[in-house]
Amino acid sequence: MIKAVNRGLELFGAWFMSMAFDVGGIFVMFARIVRAMLPPKLDGPETWTNLYRVGVKSFPIVVVTAMFTGAIMVIQAGLYIEQYGAYGLLGWGAGFSVFREVGPIMIGLMFSGRVGANNTAELGTMMVTEQIDALRALAINPVNYLVVPRFIAMILMLFLLVIIGDLTAVIGGAITSQYLLGVDMELFYWSLVTYVTLVDFSSGLIKALAFGFAIAVISCHFGMTVRGGAVGVGRAVNNSVVASAIAIFVLDYFLTYLMK
Amino acid sequence: MSAVASSEPTTPTDADEEPSTGGARALVEGLLFGVGDPIVYIGQTLRGFADVFRRTLIFILQGKIRWGEVVQQCHEIGNRSVIFIMFTLGFLGMILVFQAGFQAQRITGDLRPLGGLFLQVLLREFAPTITALMIATRVGTGIAAEIGSMVVTEQVDAMRMNAAPPVQYLIVPRFIAGTAMMIALVAIAIVVCFIAGMFTALYGFNVNPRTFVNFSFVTYADLMICMSKALAYGMAIPIVAGHTGLATHGGSAGVGWATTQSVVNCSLTVVVLDFLLSGLSYVFLSM
Amino acid sequence: MVLESKLRPGEAMIRVEGVTKFYFGEPVLRDINLEVPAGSNLGLIGPGGSGKSLLLKIVAGLVEPDRGRVFVDGHDIQALSITDLAALRFKIGMLFQNYALFDFMNVSENIAFPLRQAGGFEEDAIQKRVKEQLELVGLPGIGHQYANELSGGMKKRVSFCRAVITEPPILFYDDPTAGLDPVTSSKIFIHLRRMQQRGGTTAITITHDIEGLKDICDAFAMMERGRLIFHGSRDAIEDCEIKLVRQFWEGVSDD
Description:
Largest sheet of chain A: none
Strand order of the largest sheet of chain C: 6-7-8-3-9-10
Order of helices and strands of chain C: EEEHEEHEHHHEHEHEEHH
Helix content of chain C: 25-40%
Oligomer: heterotrimer
Distance between the termini of chain C: 55 Å
Order of helices and strands of chain A: HHHHHHHH
Helix content of chain A: over 70%
Strand content of chain C: 15-25%
Low-confidence stretches of chain A: none
């Protein structure tokens, strides 16, 4: 009995310690990024490569996800619209929910899965193959050289991808509205433009900035602290995407509350 | 020697070797490869999923199930995801009630149907789909990383050498555990999300929990939609993640590749299934 | 469960005919022809990345060649059904380069795995054979440990036990001494020789340890960049004029 209690305490303690390590580590990583950006100096080519890779790599899946998300929200709104016959509200219902909430969340989760996970795997592999130690031996600060360009690329690209995603979601929604629900595209578009405000659109973009920030810091932290070979890389990727998902929902909650 | 057609259909080498005389021709070829390559890739991947799914079902029908492993996987997929699911879905409940509440205040001012409608949307859409996306994130990466590292350490080859099919040994237990646990997790998610929403409505908008807890909107059809989505996601995620893991090649970098690919594949599968099932349910409900 | 041999008299146990394999349009194996007569041990040498491991996997039926055919024990392995291929593989033991020990099983379960899969053995008999094997390789009493608790040399020996536990007539060793110190390597070679002296075993051994190989093999083949550049007996390789073969055999480089 006492043994079981001890074992339980031990497990809880280990869990708590690793939790504390990661939460602390994420803040330390942020502090190191800020430190590396003061005074502002940027590795131009490396940043450019990262902007390109992050943007191009995630563009197709963001477009596909957004297209389907728009379609799904139109269907979900359509179930109510049908009931009350208020077809003029379809564009508002779908557009509002996609721009404010579902769009940034879905694209953020996809981005975390595609870019965040990839970033952790990449940095992690460099870590276990001692490439980062090699950089240090050449007196190159790995945070300056590897992390800062990724950090900037991820924040900027998620912001841009959410803009693109919002637009493709509208296209997906319009097609679904026309062909599945039988609601004319023009009516859908009219309702969207009339009822959805710029505030709805821009509050989604603010969320995108916050999500991009969180995914960047979290994925870099987990990548730079990998230990234990290929298995360690897999575990780090797993932890990174889990932590990013949690961060997305927590940030979303506070931003929703602040931007009511 | 190099003129021999290879077994890999995605070989752009022949086009690259063309002398660059006609710029337009090169452009057209580049465009065709740009469009064709992803289509070929998607086609192959989908065929791979279908093949793994078919073999999984055959092994289950033949009763070749390692129950000990199933229990272990249930623990890995289910128990170890509970806190994560409760945390994220709890926040989702609060977010959704906030958004809906602000809009209702602005437009109608009537907050009484909030709880009932919230529960209905939760069942139809958010609880199964967001839970599945979270599982795709946590379990999808886990399965791919685990199976992927077994591929690069040749454990999968060793299984095949001893007449132990990897699909039967590795995917069947995860398939059964994933399907069962997804349904359980969605049920937990609904409860947690609804309770989180109830408290948000109480403290944010002064909606009495007795008004908020309202089952009158929920129909049998909503429950069916929720369950069929949970079932579909629960079956799809282990298959997709398992196939992605088995497709790993090339050392520890390959494991990283499989892990990241798995999140994307699983999440996209969830989104596409969500679209199909939502569309189907719309057609049925509006008939 | 065991597949009948279809070997005609005088036919080689393993016969590789014109095997070619492409990866992403690049040929990685080009027109390989190879024969291993029953009871002989072929040493396969060559620089890293020359396709040795891939060839071994093709012979074991783990990878399908793009062209060419592979006969093992008289059976064309591409033409075999899944059940027949499984039955044929019970005659093959394989020691993998990366140990390939199942990390969800302990050492005894790992070694017993081929016996359990083959079926028809009493539990007591299985335990007895596992214990015997572990004692033979000098690792008694580690049966309850897991693979990640063992050193590289111990893993190789456990992997060896699993390959030979069913006493298969055909054995494939993929770099059995990679990354091991000389003392541990020589221990591994002692066990390989023991299997060879048992008689009737056909084997293919990939290794960079030429000195160890000279001891256990009676035929040699050398690969370079996907091609077979030498295939012959011990005497033939001693007299071989090809530069790369000479360098490998004598362990010297010319500059």
